[in-house]
Design brief:
The chain has 379 residues and is α/β, with parallel strands linked by helices. The chain has helices spanning 14-26, 36-56, 69-83, 96-106, 123-132, 156-160, 231-248, 256-275, 304-313, 333-337, 342-345, 359-376, and strands at residues 2-3, 63-66, 87-90, 110-112, 135-139, 166-170, 188-192, 203-206, 249-250, 253-254, 280-281, 292-296, 316-317, 348-352. β5, α6 (156-160) and β6 form a beta-alpha-beta unit. The relative contact order is 0.16. The protein binds pyridoxal-5'-phosphate. Pyridoxal-5'-phosphate binds at residues 68-70, 73, 95, 97, 141, 145, 170, 172-173, 192, 203, 323.
Length: 379
């Protein structure tokens, strides 16, 4: 099977697997325990914390381990609810774990940030709204999981300073795929391991020491996240991220590894549009992740699930959008916010590559799409 669903989960990298096996051998104890084995596990976690802080431009004590981005997003949103007043500006493109949590904890304080047809939350509107005052927080992700469109969330720290508003950026689809130097400077940030080759069920948030915990009932993580840390998972996540960091380069100067992958993606898009002239690439005019292509497939071919099944039979795993929405066939809230009708968003397929995909995988995917299109009567 050639796998093109990495925005849902990137398979475990060999480095992460080795680090996990090593960690379960070396750190068998609870990191909160008072004996030497416990202290050794706690020290390993602190060393990992320092690495993450170094990459993201925050203090090691600001990094808190979680069970993933859903938990971290819930925790941050309820922290915003508990510690800020005034409006909370939120992009309607956020992952449900931030959106639904915001509806639960912030309800009437929410103001939705306008979004373009190209899938970009309007940073200028945010700047103007901040000028008008009474804003407690701004919530914008780093890159959208369905479209790959890069959002102004990573620029939040540049505009919030004078306004005393908190900034929160869900960077689950950014970390481990894109350069992240100083990404977490002065903002709250969340991420998870399984989007870049770490294990599922582990992640982190960058938050202040005054953080209002969501999970209570234990002293772990300085009281900011109760519950025994997943030591092996965390060390495997950090090993995977270290491997990615080594090839990602600088925010202002994308590395050759990224340039090459952007070129593969763009060649695939050009060839796809040649092969199926009815295809529309979502967010094509905007900056997008190197790994993600969201395409509206030609109308003739029935609904997107038939494409997924057909491509699966041809040996390719692709998706209809977000992992949460796929299978349930609910209209994508992301495409709806961008102004797409349900009959249009019903035709969306998402192809998301991973670090191990090569150009020949994109080429083979295109050949399979051509074959599926012919069999589905879409050409
Ligand atoms: N945020 C974004 C942008 C995501 O893409 C995902 C995963 O799909 C999540 C949050 C949830 O992450 P997790 O699976 O670690 O709970």
């Amino acid at each position: 099977m050639r796998y093109f669903d990495h925005n849902a989960t990137h398979p475990l990298s060999a480095t992460a697997r080795a680090a996990w096996l090593d960690a379960v051998e070396r750190f068998p104890a609870n990191s909160s325990s008072p004996h030497r084995w416990g202290a050794r596990a706690a020290a390993a976690l602190d060393e990992a914390r320092e690495k993450v802080a170094g990459w993201l431009g925050c203090r090691p004590e600001d990094v808190v381990w979680t069970s993933g981005a859903t938990e971290a997003n819930n925790a941050v949103i309820q922290h915003l609810a508990a510690t800020t007043t005034g409006a909370v500006l939120i992009s309607p493109l956020e992952h449900p774990s931030a959106r639904v949590a915001a509806k639960r904890w912030l309800s009437r304080r929410l103001e939705e940030i306008p979004v373009s047809r190209g899938g970009l939350a309007d940073g200028t509107w945010v700047a103007e709204r901040l000028e008008r005052g009474d804003v407690g927080a701004v919530v914008i992700m780093a890159a959208n999981n369905e479209t790959g469109v890069i959002q102004p969330g990573i620029a939040l720290q540049g505009i919030l300073g004078p306004h005393r508003a908190l900034g929160f950026c869900d960077a689950a689809q950014w970390i481990g795929k894109m350069p992240c130097n100083d990404l977490a400077k002065d903002i709250l940030l969340t991420a998870c391991a399984h989007k870049f080759g770490g294990p599922q069920g582990v992640g982190f948030m960058v938050c202040p020491t005054s953080f209002q915990p969501l999970l209570v009932g234990g002293p772990q993580e300085d009281g900011r996240r109760a519950g025994t840390e997943n030591v092996a998972g965390i060390l495997a996540m950090v090993a995977a991220l270290e491997e990615r960091q080594a090839v990602l380069g600088d925010v202002n100067r994308p590395s050759p590894a990224l340039e090459t992958r952007l070129a593969w993606r763009d060649r695939f898009i050009a060839d796809l549009k040649d092969a199926l002239p009815g295809v529309e690439i979502i967010g094509e005019g905007a900056g997008r992740l190197w790994n993600t292509v969201a395409a509206l497939m030609p109308a003739a071919a029935d609904c997107r699930r038939r494409w997924v099944v057909k491509l699966d039979k041809l040996g390719f795993a692709v998706s209809t959008g977000s992992a949460c929405a796929s299978g349930k066939e609910q209209p994508s809230h992301v495409l709806a916010a961008m102004g797409y009708r349900t009959d249009e968003s019903d035709r969306m397929l998402r192809f998301s590559a991973g670090w191990d995909n090569r150009e020949e995988d994109w080429t083979a995917l295109l050949a399979a799409i051509r074959q599926a299109a012919a069999e589905l009567g879409a050409v």
